[in-house]
Amino acid sequence: MIGIESLKVALRSLGSNKLRTALTMLGVIIGVGAVIAMLAIGEGASQRVSASISAMGTNLVTVVPGNPRIRGGLGGGGQPITTLIPEDADAISNNLTNTVSQVAPAARGGASIKMGNENTQTTLIGTTPAYQSVNNAPTSSGRFISPDDVNGRLKVAVVGKTVVANLLGSPDADPIGMDVQINRIQFKIIGVLQAKGSGAFGQDQDDVIIIPVSTALRRVFNQTYINTIYVECASPSKMDLATEQITTLLRHRHHLMPPFPDNDDFSVRSQSALLETSQSVTGTMTALLAGVAVVSLIVGGIGIMNIMIVSVTERTREIGIRKAIGATARDIMAQFLTESLVVSVLGGLIGIALGILGSKLVGNALGWPALVRPQAVLISFLVSAGIGVFFGIYPARKAANLNPIDALRWE
């Protein structure tokens, strides 16, 4: 039983060699701090990704070209995949009215923009009016693109706040009615998107220009294919049916033959599946990082054991004297276990504080919140205490089992 007297003796002993005690604690401090920081950053990343995906709606289905089952099948080889065309989006919209409420095709690419003497690079998206609702892209001023803009292939643009800031010096400037050159083609700005901030993976969601898909394909990108089809289902309960219907329809349109899905030239992803995948990936990464941190915590525990063994050797005569005046083996064991526990607990508390601080600093640098869960703090504290007990048992037993006569002879 660890009592008050054992605690006093332990504190006195540890205080007599402050530098060695501090160095012994260091391994536990680093280990616990790293565990707290990794879990907090991982949890923050998971929450950020989940919130970003959920913000787009739980009833959203995304169709992209290529097949992930084939190497390079999603464009990984550097070549664009051209298997989706605007007519595919029209077919989904016209034929699946029972399960689909809105469809927005999108052609995406990089673009060089210029206004006056200001030049910058941004992301250009060519799409239809449905994109505003499907992807939650309201305007803060002006208007979004209209069906007439798409039908007439008009050179009009809706810009994000970052684009406004890059061109006019301030995100609050009013660019409505101004002309902007996109890849040396003159467009008129008709709207400004509401600010969204950073996305799930740190990308700037406000660094974007949206134009009619017809204009993007014919005038800017000079291509016939699109990169994505966003499909808003009538309700979350119809997502599975809609996914199946979209898959069947596109296989028919693309004249694909079995075996499926190996021969598909497209991929259909639901937001719920994407959310599960992202949570699984971030969870795995967090576990791996925390595992590495736990290794350093174990190394810290081994350091405690080594120092305690040295301490037992140095204090052999002291142990002999205590036994000679009546201290039991249990008393001796309690004293050394207490010393080990004090080192690990103090190291754990300092590590928790530094881990919380470090996770906040790293989270701010990465642009997403670091979420410190009370459970993580409690578990880290208990583990650090357990490390002290576990790695302190051997030195404590060694001290308790010393023969008092031999110990008194020790020089």
Structural account:
With 411 residues, this protein is α+β, with helices and mostly antiparallel strands. The protein folds into two domains: 177 residues, no CATH class; 121 residues, no CATH class. The chain is 55% helix and 17% strand. It has 13 helices and ten strands. The chain has a six-stranded mixed barrel with strand order 2-3-8-5-7-6. A hairpin with a 2-residue loop joins strand 2 and strand 3. Helix 2 packs antiparallel against helix 9 and helix 2 runs antiparallel to helix 12. It is elongated and about 100 Å long. The model has no long low-confidence stretch (mean pLDDT 87).
Q: For the largest beta sheet, what order do the strands appear in spatially?
A: 2-3-8-5-7-6
SS class = alpha+beta
Low-pLDDT residue spans: none
What is the approximate shape? Answer: elongated
Question: How many extended strands?
Answer: 10
Round the mean pLDDT to the nearest integer and report it: 87
Helix content: 40-55%
* Structure annotation, total helices: 13
How much of the sequence lies in strands comes to: 15-25%
